[in-house]
Amino acid sequence: xxxxxxxxxxxxxxxxxxxxxxxxxxxxxxxxxxxxxxxxxxxxxxxxxxxxxxxxxxxxxxxxxxxxxxxxxxxxxxxxxxxxxxxxxxxxxxxxxxxxxxxxxxxxxxxxxxxxxxxxxxxxxxxxxxxxxxxxxx
Length: 138
Ligand code: CMP
Prior knowledge:
Structural class: alpha+beta
Order of helices and strands: EHHEHHEHHEH
CATH topology: Alpha-Beta Plaits
Bound molecules: adenosine-3',5'-cyclic-monophosphate
Helix content: 25-40%
Strand order of the largest sheet: 2-3-1-4
Oligomer: single chain
Shape: globular
Largest sheet: 4 strands, antiparallel
CATH superfamily: Nucleoside diphosphate kinase-like domain
Distance between the termini: 19 Å
Number of strands: 4
């Protein structure tokens, strides 16, 4: 079990001014920030990041949304990081997300769902390395 996960604060949450509140929540829940940056994905880069979903019907919509505005990307550290972070953010569809979760509080829809969280230790490492070099991780 690795102690790191990767997250993005998505364009909807950025546009709605929730980045500060969401980062504050990560930290208050015990996640240490290992790396952090604001950036914008080109359509090409968003397509590459979500290549695993290429065959899904929502792929085009996902790529277009994720490249529609700035995002915040971060690597976070805590014991049991991947599973605990997914509990903190809640179900992919905010209508199904538990009370007290970040998506329940800040997400609009299954597509525009405020935050991303890695679904496995392996993907956390791949996704973190997509945005950050080893020298950017402290
Ligand atoms: P995320 O955890 O970032 O990884 C894949 C994303 O695809 C997911 O969050 C959702 O934002 C998006 N997604 C999943 N299901 C759907 C859907 N039915 N329609 C649109 N987007 C979706």
